[in-house]
Specification:
This protein is α+β, with helices and mostly antiparallel strands. Helices cover 24% and strands 41% of the residues. It has 4 helices and 8 strands, in the order βββααααβββββ. Strands 2, 3, 5, 6, 7 and 8 form a 6-stranded antiparallel beta sheet that branches. The protein is elongated. 26% of the residues are buried.
Length: 146
């Protein structure tokens, strides 16, 4: 995990911040996400049908997106900052399927740091990689205020 002070952040613009640990997206996690979101589409939860028709179940795109919260905490810690507010995404694309049992990780680059409301607005380029695949699961541009 990279650590930086508030004052050091502008100097990190244009640089990769780091890469998270691998997270396993197994069928149990997919099933729990389906329960919470009430998205029971067969491509996610019907293991037998998915094996026959598409080779196996795949994770929900929004499950992959939601795991970014946990993964981003492993990449950058800003010393002395006690909270961050997620402002959302400027750009977001689901670019690859995450098969059940896959491992994913987050790679981030700092795109900009701007003064905002007495703090800083950070924009990060995010890519969720799938182990063993060239194409990422998703790419996004995320904003937060610290």
């Amino acid at each position: 995990m990279r650590q930086a002070t508030f004052e050091e952040l502008p100097g990190l613009v244009g640089h990769e911040l780091g890469v998270s640990d691998w997270f396993t997206v197994d069928q149990a996690r997919i099933d729990r996400f389906a329960e919470v979101t009430e998205d029971h589409q067969w491509i996610h939860v019907d293991v037998d049908r998915a094996k026959k028709e598409i080779g196996g179940t795949i994770a929900h795109g929004f499950l992959t997106l939601s795991l970014m919260s946990a993964m981003t905490y492993q990449i950058l810690q800003v010393k002395g900052v006690t909270r961050g507010v997620n402002y959302g995404f400027n750009k977001l694309r689901f670019t690859g399927m995450v098969p059940a049992g896959s491992r994913i990780r987050l790679r981030e680059k700092l795109l900009s740091v701007e003064p905002k409301s007495g703090g800083l607005a950070l924009t990060r380029e995010c890519s969720v990689e799938i182990e063993g695949q060239e194409r990422p699961a998703l790419v996004a541009e995320r904003e937060e205020e610290i």
